[in-house]
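Long-time lurker. I teach an intro course on protein structure, and each term I like to show students one example going from raw sequence to a predicted 3D structure in token notation. This year I'd like something fresh instead of my usual example. Would anyone be willing to generate the tokens for the chain below so I can use it in lecture? Attribution to the forum is fine with me.
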Amino acid sequence: MASVITATNSSGLTTSADNSGVLQLASGTGNLVTVPSVTGTAMVSGNMPAFSAYPSSGQTSVSGLVKILFGTEEYDTNNCFASSRFTPNVAGYYQLNTFVQGSWVNSEVAIYVYKNGSNHKIGLDLLIPTGGLNYGVGMSTLVYANGTTDYFEIYLYSGASQTLGSAATNTWFNGSMVRGA
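-- Reply from a regular --
Happy to contribute to a lecture. Here you go:
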């Protein structure tokens, strides 16, 4: 059996029994919120990890595969981001996004999301033509994290050395929880 909890201006909180099997929160004016039955952890905004970070300074990328260093946090709601690594402390599904800008000339460039030290997803992989202009590569992906040991990092492959962008607007890594496991 479930209960309906009602808040009214005159009597405060009142409860009444029903047989719906769900929790309902109601106001005295008829507004009703139904909380579905769940198994596991019910998510509220206070425990859904989210972060955003960018480099503290320009990083010179050597030719080949290199981990991108994100030394400045814009926000980190659950203290899950450190040492250029996102380690969610709540099991669930996470939307991760990244963008890296550089001045590549006639070079192949690719961006990767690494999970637990291995390639998990590859983003844009392209050949930059000659010209020396600032180009960027980015990606967005939905990933699962177990909430204890899984972690995520961003890697970049470049066919030539260059200095990467370091402003919060042109090289960044962010993510947030979409739903619990």
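Some talking points for your students: The chain has no helices and 17 strands. The first strand starts at residue 2 and ends at 8.
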